[in-house]
Amino acid sequence: MENNTSSNFIRNIIIDDLETGKHKEIITRFPPEPNGYLHIGHAKSICLNFGLGEEFKGNTNLRFDDTNPVKEDTEYVQSIEEDVKWLGFKWDNLYFASDYFDEMYHRAILLIKNAKAYVCDLSAEEMREYRGTLKEPGKESPYRNRTVEENLDLFERMKNGAFKDGEKVLRAKIDMSSPNLNMRDPVIYRIARATHHNTGDKWCIYPMYDYAHPLEDAIEGITHSICTLEFEDHRPLYDWVVKECEMECVPRQIEFARLDITNTVMSKRKLKQLVDEGYVDGWDDPRMPTISGLRRRGFTPESIRNFAKEIGVAKNNSKVDSQMLDHFIREDLKLKAPRTMGILRPLKVVITNYPEDKVEMLEAENNPENLDMGNREIPFSRELYIEQEDFMENPPKKYFRLFPGNEVRLKHAYFIKCNEVIKDENGNVTEIHCTYDIETKSGTGFTGRKVKGTIHWVEAKNAVPVEFRLYEPLILDEDMEEGKTFIDCVNSKSLERVQGFVEPNMKDIKPQDKFQFFRHGYFNVDTKYTTEDKIVFNRIVSLKSSFAFKK
Ligand code: ATP
Ligand code: MG
After folding, report:
1. Which of 5, 30, 45 to mutate to test the pocket of ligand 1 (most atoms within 8 A of CB)?
2. I want to staple 34 with a disulfide (CB 3.0 to 4.6 A). Which of 76, 181, 330, 500 is the partner?
3. Which ligand minimizes its atom distance to the CA of 36?
4. How close is the Cα of 95 to the center of ligand 2, in Å?
5. What digits encode the pLDDT tens for the residues 449-482?
């Protein structure tokens, strides 16, 4: 596999740790919470963690950070495993944080015994008041000085279900006047009667993220715990937990900038809202930035890995242009995808001087940039479809496609000249009549005269009717202004469905096959809506972008 990490500060830390002998072997982890489907931001973290594990011949764990019973689900667990595998990575171990609940509980008892944790009866609201602000120190809870015996007894009763949800919490005893709010006696256990997808009803107390996560890392012997920047302020607490819980392994938390992309929301909570409120037709809707959505749209694992490598790892947040992702799928498919002809908005053409019943087969290259892909035969006959936009009755200057009296080249076929325009009673063009010149056949080296326009076409009788789904960004950044939410910026025109035709030799293609249609871009056969009777194509990207890509 290619090297998935370009040089970055995290790599340098690891190289240093291996050189100085601090670690003989590194262990990283990717720790998703199974409360939604993975998105392209997670892909960045996956490529980073697994990439480092591979590069330095260490281990990488896939760990489900499933300490919050309310939002988690096995459907998400399955989709996450599938997505990581699809991206091309193998975990050395698969763990569930909930398997450590016993150990976490015992470590909490250790904290209590060392007078480092106490049971507190303040309500959530009171606790907020007591916490203070960035400018003002907090106030100590009246329950802060309970005895060790009393705390042990209360915590055990919390575990045994003696109290109502929210009635009591266990808090770390750190420093109510710390300038870092995270250190002002954070809650480490809460009471919540909820059935957990892994442990069922065994527990009615659950550890909080800031307590659970460092323990999970330490239990697994993680050397480098890589997370996003918003956890920087939590690092002192992370280190406190590892130390005070007397963990043998001391992992190092390193923060990097989270991926943010233009015209995209990047949070499972928001993506779930788009699904639940029906703005999209599921987590894998081709407009979604989820890995499953990108897969259905037609992105390849290589394109996503190359994207992740290019954006790199930085210490400050910034927004990446979504067109950069488009660039990498174009690059990946350029030599892989067959180039073929598809008509999105058909207009019938009759070649009046072509014999009625004749069908001839013409030779076409499958990919002029990759001749190994060979040739195919496409039928040509008296009736064809061309693109509506390739004909104009009254064209402006510099329009080189078909118009009355003008001659163009049909890709892989002949020159045709437009002679007559047929209209219905409302004046709409229904078909156009042309003549072809047999001398101009493609591949025969005809040099008699030149035409300025080349257009694509499909033979009408054998054409395969298909649906093309064309996409625009789901979120319009430019619609965002004060007081608006991301839902107000959902693009109501993000999906357009058109009924067109493709070449007859495409009738046996299957979901996930990818093609370049001349002039229209790259397309993928949809996995959800393609049936025995109907092929549905998702446009992955158009051919060109206005994006100036920095090399
Ligand atoms: P979300 O807010 O979308 O739910 P999260 O951070 O809560 O994201 P987790 O499941 O907890 O999601 O994340 C698993 C890992 O993926 C974490 O290590 C997290 O730092 C990383 N991650 C999540 N979002 C991004 C992102 N946009 N860019 C880079 N890494 C990310
Ligand atoms: Mg989360």
Report:
1. 45
2. 76
3. 1
4. 17
5. 999 999 999 999 999 999 999 999 999 998 899 9
